[in-house]
Specification:
The chain is an all-alpha fold. The protein has eight helices and no strands.
Length: 196
């Protein structure tokens, strides 16, 4: 199974790299992966692909998702749409485009590949936090319309949940940037808090 996976990956990435090399040769640019213009072409292709994928997702969501939400009789999907849930989920597609484009066009040992991979992962973490915010806001709105809201409010719990998810996302982002385990960061923060 490993041999098949390696063969299939090599067959998908090699033609894309050959296309970049041919474009560089046509433009009279060095096809050396370490050259500035070759790197510029690769980054331009990846950024263009991510922007086009975001535009395509926006068009699909605005045309189909909005119609589906408006036709539905449920309140939860209207609340999700009002808080931008579907629009925020759509941002995961360009993040995946950056990750897959980097994998297909750049050598895995190249510094640019590592940088773009981290950017896509940070992008996904931030988008994930936005999605969680929209879900929590939707829960708060739906609860506010229920009979239980007259007895007790959940605004405080929603704010605490947002704070907890924000801290977790921040720790994960820092651990990605510095290449350290988030558990080590958390243990370091608890040690500092204990000293204080």
């Amino acid at each position: 199974m490993r041999e098949f996976n390696t063969w299939s990956i090599a067959n998908t990435t090699a033609p894309l790299q050959d296309v970049v090399v041919r474009v560089a040769n046509v433009l009279g640019i060095s096809s050396d992966p370490d050259s500035f213009w070759y790197t510029f072409i690769v980054v331009a292709i990846i950024v263009s692909a991510s922007l086009l994928s975001l535009l395509a997702v926006r068009v699909l969501l605005s045309n189909h998702a909005t119609k589906w939400v408006l036709r539905s009789k449920n309140k939860w999907d209207d609340a999700l749409h009002a808080h931008g849930f579907f629009r925020r989920v759509g941002h995961l597609v360009p993040a995946l485009a950056i990750s897959l484009g980097s994998y297909a066009l750049i050598d895995s040992e190249h510094a640019l590949y590592i940088a773009l991979l981290k950017i896509s992962q940070l992008y996904m973490l931030v988008v994930g936090l936005w999605v969680i915010y929209s879900v929590l806001n939707t829960i708060e709105d739906l609860y506010a319309e229920s009979r239980m809201a007259k007895r007790a409010s959940i605004t405080g719990f929603i704010q605490i949940a947002k704070l907890v998810f924000s801290i977790i996302t921040l720790l994960l982002c820092i651990s990605l940037i510095i290449d350290k385990s988030p558990i080590l960061l958390l243990s370091g923060l608890t040690a500092i808090a204990a000293v204080l």
